[in-house]
Amino acid sequence: LGMVTPLGCGVETSWKRLINGECGIRVLSPEDLKMNDFDQDTLSQTFQQLTSKVAAVVPTGSADGEFNEKLWIHSR
Questions:
Q1: Whole-Å CA distances, 20 to 24, 29, 33
Q2: What is the pTM of this model?
């Protein structure tokens, strides 16, 4: 059994954070758009056009409780 949620990855991590009253909803930043190859003006304009600046985003990375994209998503 597994879980991938805005509170984290894994059953234990997700449940622990839920029981502790943590929330997976957060304010977005321009870096969340992952538009690394675009210039700053394009990134800023795109971010300003978002109708919402809050989201329930799955935490990514290689630390405990984070979704490691490299283990699941392969580029072609």
A1: 12, 25, 29
A2: 0.73
